[in-house]
Every structure is written in C-alpha cells, then in structure tokens.
Amino acid sequence: MDQDPQLQLDPRHLSLLWASPDRAADVARMHAELFTPPWDQPSILKMLEHPAAAALIAVAGSKREPAGFIMAQLADDEAEILSVGVALKWQRLGLGARLIEGLVRAARRAEARRLFLEVSTDNSAALRLYEKLDFRRVGIRPKYYKVPGKDAVDALILALEF
Ligand SMILES: CC(C)(COP(=O)(O)OP(=O)(O)OC[C@H]1O[C@@H](n2cnc3c(N)ncnc32)[C@H](O)[C@@H]1OP(=O)(O)O)[C@@H](O)C(=O)NCCC(=O)NCCS
C-alpha cells in the first residue's frame, strides 16, 4: 500500500532537480496526465534541449518518483513559463509553489527580472496558485484556448516582478 503522501513529502524526500534532456520521458508522462492535448516527448525534448531553457523536475517520496515539472525559457531580463504541472497524486502539498519559487531563483541567477505565463480563465487552481505567489494580470488573449465542441476560453497573461 502507498504511504501517506503527506509523510512522503517530508523535505528529506523532496528534491528539485535541473531537468536535463534525459528527463523528457518523465515530463511527457506527467504532461499527458494533466493536459489535453498533451505535448509529445519529442516536443518536450526539444524544449529541454533549447539553449535558453530553464526547467526543473520535482522528485518525491522514498522512491524519488517524478512528481512535478516546470519548463521555462529565458530571454534577456525576462523569463516565460511554458508549462508547469504537478502529478495528481502529489497535488495540494505545496509542490506547485515550490516549483515556481525554484524557477524564480534560477531566473534571478540568470539576471531575469520578470516572469510571464499564460493561464486559462477557467483554471481556478492555477489562478489561485499564481495569485498567492503575487503574479499580476498584465494582459488578455481573447478566445485563446480552443477545444473542439466547446466555447473558446480566454487566456490571461500574468507577470511576476522580482
Ligand atoms: C496548478 C497546479 C500546478 C498546482 O499544483 P499544486 O502542487 O497542487 O499546488 P500547491 O499545493 O503548491 O498549491 C498552492 C496554492 O495554490 C492554490 N491551489 C492549488 N490547487 C488548488 C485547487 N485545486 N483548488 C483551489 N486552489 C488551489 C491554493 O491556494 C494552494 O494553497 P493551499 O493548499 O494552502 O490552499 C496543479 O493543480 C496542476 O498541475 N494542474 C494541472 C496543470 C495546470 O493547470 N498547470 C498550470 C497551467 S497554467
């Protein structure tokens, strides 16, 4: 039987690691669990191999299993989150916040001063998380997310200055 995830998230059993290209399969598996449509492994590999990539993977539990990821790109003094997710089993334990904070530390070291992201107006979990971390709304892309058979949903552009 699985251990209680709360116990497994003991800080001694949580690491944020730089996501090198050899982590593409782990990230693709988590992405497929969380997003429709998922990004395929070759696309994720390309992002992780990009010279401007900044990406982290969280490994958690006594088995150090992949639990979350964040992929971003750096350009001059700005960074942009391309995708962030926490595997269902590990959600609501603070990992999403830790991944973003880890990325902010990496972006700061690279002399970035601002972090951008896009989020769907119907993604209440992510909106709460970003609000809690002090992201501010800086723009909107009307009807940006198009899902067949459903009304298109607006994207908000959020930014965090640091
Ligand atoms: C958004 C996501 C990354 C959050 O990850 P997480 O590890 O569960 O988030 P955290 O535990 O760090 O949550 C921090 C805060 O965010 C808010 N939050 C997170 N998930 C929430 C939910 N399902 N409902 C309401 N608020 C939520 C809460 O304020 C939470 O603080 P609290 O637990 O003290 O109340 C995760 O839900 C996810 O992977 N979703 C699917 C992929 C996705 O939508 N990615 C973002 C695309 S822009």
Q: How is this fold's topology laid out?
A:
Elements: H1 5-8, E1 14-18, H2 24-34, H3 41-49, E2 53-60, E3 65-75, E4 78-86, H4 95-109, E5 114-120, H5 124-132, E6 136-145, E7 153-161
Parallel strand pairs: 4-5
Antiparallel strand pairs: 1-2, 2-3, 3-4, 5-7, 6-7
Helix pairs in contact: 2-3
The structure holds coenzyme A.
Describe this structure in words.
The structure is a single chain. The longest helix has 15 residues, at 95-109. This protein has 162 residues and is of the alpha+beta class. The protein has one domain: Gcn5-related N-acetyltransferase (GNAT) (Aminopeptidase, 3-Layer(aba) Sandwich), CATH 3.40.630.30. Helix content is 30%, strand content 36%. The mean pLDDT is 94. Helix 2 (24-34) crosses helix 3 (41-49). The chain has a 7-stranded mixed sheet with strand order 1-2-3-4-5-7-6, with helices on both faces. It contains 5 helices and 7 strands; from the N terminus they run αβααβββαβαββ. The structure holds coenzyme A. Residues 34, 84-86, 91-97, 119, 123-126, 128-129, 132 line the site of coenzyme A.
